[in-house]
């Protein structure tokens, strides 16, 4: 049976201290991600200007678990829609319209549908914002080209077996064109 | 040459981005209109539409100081231009969602060139539509009565079985989901603009707008899934909104309105007019912002084909209405349609037929589908026709069951001012948006370029 797993809700981790390698092509970043996974640098990340196909498998990140949120939020919205209309029309303020049943539920369907969609959409996006660490306007930008045409490999200091000089030479060995050691005190 | 490119060449599939652009070129080209100082043309157009908007706002103020008697509405024609405009604009909005959601689910790569502008068009069109909806109630300051809320008047709730309340829920859900979908897609592109900004004020502005997006692969993986989810949610949503708008009419017992064909007929009409508006805007945008490599003739060709197909569907619906009116043997129904075509508003009916059914037939010819002036004129004509379609439907009210209660509807200057004002508001918002945010989805266009692929294939 397909059940949600905690690691599917992987979170964005702040990039405060670690090593950043910059690559020129999507092939290079894909290769780098595979090697970093082999090296088992826990919590490493790639910075991409657009979603590169297949990078999740290369990095070993599981598929996002957000559809689960959509599913349960949809059920929640649907329930609210049914209950709210039923309770207001049949109990709190019963209105006899053309002698129809007080619980003429066919007419509730449009609003039930709208509330289901609304709730599913909004809760999913809220969870996405939480997991991606947005909005946060004061975040440091590691390199301006990373949102345009270059690709970054980020290995944080918190990674297991992190050794600065070793990581720098590892990233250089992968063909990283620029390798920077990022420290909190360098922050602009 | 990559294998994928070789296959495309062999199958003669046109590139979605022409001109041999690199990833960096894409960023530079698309960000250019946002970074340069606006041209004279932009300023002139903007000032013109802004003036129209301001005049419209003043007139709206006067209208509510005096009352709705200034409009041409009367008894029996209680629904005038406001509702015509509402249905027209909400229809325009549908193409945006269709392009961004339905074409996304069908994995149509060509949507990436046009989806951003189409989504923005949706938002502004729905805002304009919603403003008409609120204004037509006459006392817009009490508009919140449409929402269920705990109030001090005892157990008093809105009537959830009323199509007008369905409208409120449908339009507000549609607006919020479309806005979220649109903005979510914009975040990575705003981050691109932030990182390219040189002036401090610009950097600060985009820093706030971009929400602190860095482009982490973990965030991208969530974002991609959410785009898919929102597309899957918006697709039935877009069908439901215009279906519910059609219920405003179809749930009544008026001949000519009380028909089951209304929901699909309204949805097809919405897509039809929406695509016409997208073509109008894209033809201008690619020219003005020099984006011919991103909004290619292939894009326009595809949109023209959709316009033609939906035009045919709408034409079929017009025919079916007449056939069913005759076939039902209901004399009121027969009269309603006879009156539509040959009654006092017959001229509007024939404008509608010639604009909506005849004009898109030019797109049967490949040469004309690839001809910019032809498609531009056709798209404008279709929009005129679709406005008249809603006008014709509304004018069904002028002759109902009893000849003693028949009356004509003559729009006043205020009606026309409101109509022109909707265009003013729409284009003011659209022009402002073009300057601040990228007209084309930068990140998404990059995913359909030949050099996008990684090693995993």
Task: Write a structural description.
Chain A is α+β, with helices and mostly antiparallel strands. Chain A folds into two domains: 14-62 and 144-182, Alpha-Beta Plaits; 65-132, no CATH class. In chain A, 43% of the residues lie in helices and 11% in strands. Chain A contains five helices and four strands, in the order E-H-E-H-H-H-E-H-E. Chain A has helices at 26-39, 55-59, 66-92, 109-132, 164-173, and strands at 18-23, 45-47, 151-156, 178-182. Chain A has a four-stranded antiparallel β-sheet with strand order 2-3-1-4, covered by helices on one side. In chain A, helix 3 packs antiparallel against helix 4 (109-132). The longest helix of chain A is centred in the middle third of the chain and has 27 residues, at 66-92. The radius of gyration of chain A is 24 Å and the shape is elongated. With 457 residues, chain B is mostly helical. Chain B has one domain (21-139, 165-448). Chain B contains 16 helices and no strands. Chain B has helices at residues 3-11, 23-35, 40-66, 81-105, 115-135, 163-196, 200-209, 217-250, 262-288, 297-328, 331-342, 346-358, 366-369, 372-394, 413-436, 442-446. The two termini of chain B are 15 Å apart. The chains are: A alpha+beta (188), B mainly alpha (457). The interface between A and B is large, with 76 and 66 residues.
Largest sheet of chain A: 4 strands, antiparallel
What is the H-and-E element order of chain A? EHEHHHEHE
Overall form of chain A? elongated
How many individual β-strands of chain B? 0
What is the gyration radius of chain B calculated from CA atoms? 23 Å
| Whole-number count of domains of chain B | 1
Helix/strand class of chain B = mainly alpha
Q: Helicity level of chain B, as a percent range?
A: 55-70%
Instruction: Give unreliable regions of chain A as ranges.
Output: none
Quick one: CATH class of the largest domain in chain A? Alpha Beta
Shape of chain B: globular
Strand content of chain A: 5-15%
Number of helices of chain B: 16
Structural class of chain A, please?
A: alpha+beta
N to C succession of SSEs of chain B: HHHHHHHHHHHHHHHH
What's the N-to-C terminus distance of chain B?
15 Å
The largest sheet of chain B is: none
Q: How far apart, in Å, are the first and last alpha carbons of chain A?
A: 49 Å
**Which two chains touch over the largest interface?**
A-B, 76 and 66 residues
Organism (chain A): Leptospira bandrabouensis
Transmembrane segments (chain A): 68-87, 107-131
InterPro entries (chain A): ActD
Pfam families (chain A): ActD (PF11821)
């Amino acid at each position: 049976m397909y059940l949600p797993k905690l690691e599917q809700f992987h979170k964005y981790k702040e990039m405060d201290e670690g090593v950043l390698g910059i690559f020129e092509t999507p092939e290079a970043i894909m290769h780098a991600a595979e090697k970093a996974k082999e090296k088992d640098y826990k919590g490493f990340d790639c910075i991409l200007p657009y979603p590169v196909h297949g990078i999740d498998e290369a990095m070993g990140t599981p598929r996002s678990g957000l559809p689960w949120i959509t599913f349960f939020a949809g059920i929640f919205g649907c329930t609210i829609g049914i209950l709210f209309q039923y309770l207001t029309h049949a109990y709190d303020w019963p209105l006899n319209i053309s002698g129809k049943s007080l619980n003429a539920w066919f007419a509730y369907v449009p609003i039930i549908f709208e509330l289901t969609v609304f709730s599913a959409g909004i809760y999913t996006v809220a969870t996405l914002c939480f997991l991606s660490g947005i909005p946060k306007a004061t975040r440091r930008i590691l390199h301006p080209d990373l949102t345009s045409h270059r690709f970054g490999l980020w290995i944080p200091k918190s990674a297991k077996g992190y050794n600065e000089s070793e990581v720098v030479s590892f990233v250089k060995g992968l063909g990283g064109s620029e390798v920077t050691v990022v420290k909190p005190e360098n922050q602009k | 040459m990559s294998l994928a490119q070789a296959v495309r060449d062999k199958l003669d599939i046109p590139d979605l981005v022409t001109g041999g652009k690199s990833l960096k070129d894409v960023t530079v080209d698309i960000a250019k209109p946002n970074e340069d100082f606006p041209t004279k043309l932009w300023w002139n157009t903007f000032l013109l539409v802004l003036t129209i908007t301001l005049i419209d706002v003043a007139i709206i103020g006067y209208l509510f100081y005096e009352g709705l008697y200034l409009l041409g509405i009367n008894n029996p024609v209680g629904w005038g231009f406001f509702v015509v405009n509402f249905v027209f604009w909400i229809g325009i909005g549908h193409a945006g969602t269709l392009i961004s959601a339905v074409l996304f689910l069908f994995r149509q790569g060509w949507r990436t060139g046009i989806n951003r502008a189409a989504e923005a068009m949706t938002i502004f069109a729905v805002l304009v539509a919603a403003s008409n909806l609120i204004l037509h109630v006459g006392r817009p300051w009490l508009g919140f009565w449409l929402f269920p809320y705990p109030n001090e008047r005892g157990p008093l709730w809105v009537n959830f079985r009323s199509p007008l309340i369905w409208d409120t829920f449908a339009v507000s859900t549609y607006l919020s989901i479309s806005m979220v979908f649109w903005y979510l897609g914009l975040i990575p592109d705003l981050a691109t603009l932030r990182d390219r900004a040189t002036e401090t004020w610009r950097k600060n502005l985009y820093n706030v707008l971009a929400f602190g997006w860095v482009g982490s692969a973990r965030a991208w993986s969530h974002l991609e899934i959410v785009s898919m989810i929102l597309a899957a949610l918006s697709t039935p949503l877009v069908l439901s909104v215009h279906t519910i708008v059609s219920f405003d009419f179809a749930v009544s017992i008026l001949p000519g309105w009380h028909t089951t064909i209304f929901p699909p007929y309204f949805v097809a009409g919405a897509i039809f007019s929406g695509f016409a508006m997208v073509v109008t805007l894209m033809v201008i945008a690619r020219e003005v912002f020099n984006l011919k490599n991103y909004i290619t003739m292939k894009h326009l060709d595809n949109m023209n084909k959709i316009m033609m197909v939906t035009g045919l569907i709408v034409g079929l619906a017009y025919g079916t209405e007449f056939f069913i009116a005759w076939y039902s043997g209901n004399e009121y129904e027969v009269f309603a349609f006879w009156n539509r075509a040959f009654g006092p508003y017959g001229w509007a009916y024939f404008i509608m037929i010639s604009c909506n059914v005849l004009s898109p037939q030019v797109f049967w010819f490949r040469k004309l589908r690839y001809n910019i002036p032809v498609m531009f004129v056709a798209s404008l004509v279709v929009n005129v026709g679709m406005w008249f379609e809603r006008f014709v439907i509304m004018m069904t009210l002028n002759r109902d069951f009893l000849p003693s209660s028949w009356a004509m509807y003559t729009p006043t200057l205020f009606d026309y001012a409101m109509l022109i004002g909707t265009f003013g508001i729409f284009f003011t918002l659209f022009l402002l948006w073009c300057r601040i945010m990228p007209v084309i989805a930068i990140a998404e266009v990059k995913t359909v370029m030949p050099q996008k692929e990684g090693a995993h294939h």
